[in-house]
Each structure stands twice: as C-alpha cells, then as structure tokens.
Amino acid sequence: MEKEKKKGWTHPEAAEKYAQTADIIIPERKEILSIISRVAIELGPMDPKIIDLGCGLGDVTAEILKLKPQADVLMIDFSDEMIRRSSERFRDNKNINVVKRDLNQGLLDITGDRGFDAVVSCFSIHHVEFENRSKLYSDIRELLKEQGLFINGDLFREDSPAIDQWEFNNKISSLMIQLKEKLGQEWTFEELKLNRLENSQKMGDKPGTLLETFQDMKAAGFRHVDCLWKSRNLAIMAATKS
Questions:
Q1: Methyltransferase type domain spans which residues (predicted)?
Q2: Which residue of 90, 149, 189, 213 sits 20 to 30 Å from the alpha carbon of 239, by its own alpha carbon?
C-alpha cells in the first residue's frame, strides 16, 4: 500500500490532477483552508513561525501569507513534484523554506528549532501509516512552543460502518452532479463509486476516526484537543501543547 501511495502522489500527473479537480472533489476545501489559516494566525503572535505538513501545492501557506505576509513557514512534503511546485510558487519569499520528507519518517531531525507557534496540515495525515501516527504527533508537539497549536484538517472515517457507508454514497451522488456541471463528465453511480475507491487505494488513504485521533493526540501529550469543524467525513481538529 505504501508503495502504491508513493507511486500515485510522486507522479507529476497526480499533482496536476489535484490542482485541477481538488475544489470539485472536495467542495468544502476552501472553507477548510480558511479556518486552518485563520486559527493559526489569530491565535498566534505578530510574527509567527509555522510548519505546513504535507504542504502539497502550498495552498495552506498561501492562505496564511494573505493574513500575515511576514509569517515564517517551513513547508514539508514527500512528493518531488509537490516540492517543485511549492518552491516555484514561493521562490521570491525569503521566509519560506520547502523541505522533502515522508511524514512516516518523523520530523525531529529536519530542524533544531523547537519554537514553532503552529503546525498545520490539510489532507495529509490520513496518508501516514497508522503505526507511525503516534510518533508523528509526539514530534509535532515537541516542535511547538509551550502555547503552540497543531491544526489538522483531514479526511476521517466514521465510527459506525453504516454511517460511514451512507456518507460515502451521498458523496458519490453529490460528486456526480459536480462533475457534470463543472467538467461536463457523466458518470453512473457505480462507475464513479468504483473510481473513487480505486483512487483512494492508489493514493494510500487510511483515514482514522475522530475518536482514534483524539486519543492519539492526548497520548502524545497535547493538553487540549478539540474538533473545530465537521462536515460529513471531513473535520478540523486543533490541539494545544500545554
């Protein structure tokens, strides 16, 4: 599964397809990006230092810079193509550094800095292997200042299989309409359902439940863990170091 994931996301076509269709596949994406960036900035200092985990095309960082152009951001991704695109996008900003790293490998050797105001992530951690998530959360906590925040917008699985399946089926029905209206593509329900399941497997999607994530963050030492926003199987969680 890990090899399939890397093959999917490291291919240049995957980055281009995501850039073209992300807001169609995930209509809530812009709202999620806005909430993550606002929380990071509005609850942080005047000149924040932030890590953007699984930065992808750099959309979270772009939202952060709209609110705080002077923000210092360390962007991290494992895809060469995403790294290339993000580096090009922010090439003129001296406060932006882009680093390649698979989140399964941990974070602490990337930087000696343990004074970040926030760590943000959007649609990335559900690609991390389950057995590596507790260590990742511990690393994130160690990189933060005492009052630092971890804000994660991601794909989650419902605890009830019946509810999870119901949400997935409704997502497919809504997506059929969006693809026809926005791209002129016509799919049957079963065709699109199979397409999304195959894509999820290829990209290495492994969503956990909100409860599992809450427990993992608490076990990593975060003092407060909250769900800021939820819509179907998408949610934003925020955790404070102390």
A1: 51-150
A2: 90
Residue keyed to tokens 């409860």: 211
For tokens 């009830």, the residue is 160
The pLDDT of residue 1: 27
Q: With a cut of 50, which residues of the chain have pLDDT below it?
A: 1-6
Alpha-carbon span 202 to 142, nearest angstrom: 32
Domain spans in the chain, listed from the N-terminal domain onward: 6-156+204-239, 159-200
Task: Assess contact for 54 and 125: CB atoms under 8 A.
Answer: yes
pLDDT of residue 8: 60
Residue type, 91: R
Give backbone dihedrals phi and psi of 13, rounded to 5 degrees, phi first.
-65, -30
Q: What predicted TM-score, i.e. pTM, was given to this entire model? A: 0.92
Partners of 240 in beta bridges = 149, 224
Alpha helices for 11-79 (secondary structure H): 12-25, 29-42, 59-67
238: tokens are 């925020």
